[in-house]
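=== RUN LOG ===
request id: a7f3
mode: sequence -> structure
chains: 1
length: 111
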Amino acid sequence: MSFITDLKDLMPNTVTHKPVTTRDQYGKPTLGSGTDYTARVVYKAQRISSQRQGATGDVIAAGHVILAGTPTIGLDDEISEGGTALGLIHRVDRLSDESGVIYVKVYFGAG
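=== RESULT ===
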């Protein structure tokens, strides 16, 4: 039994990931079709180091999402729950063990 299978009971939420597919001439992103993932959404303010370009110092994330699976999430992508975007993605951590990436943790919050 794999690690993520053991954690499925602790992941009661479903979130949708929409990746950026293209950008227009002004840099505005166009989002692709969504993919649903089993997840755990935690709304807890936390000080983190942002990965966003131009971010100086720490930011306060409104919460984080732990995704079952290993999707590639970009900082300009959208993560939503129940059709409502969770907010700006500040940081994406891909956590791994000796067999590779086991889950993805995304920190989100206001811009």
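=== NOTES ===
The mean pLDDT is 88.
Residues 3-109 form a domain with the Thrombin, subunit H fold (CATH 2.40.10).
=== END ===
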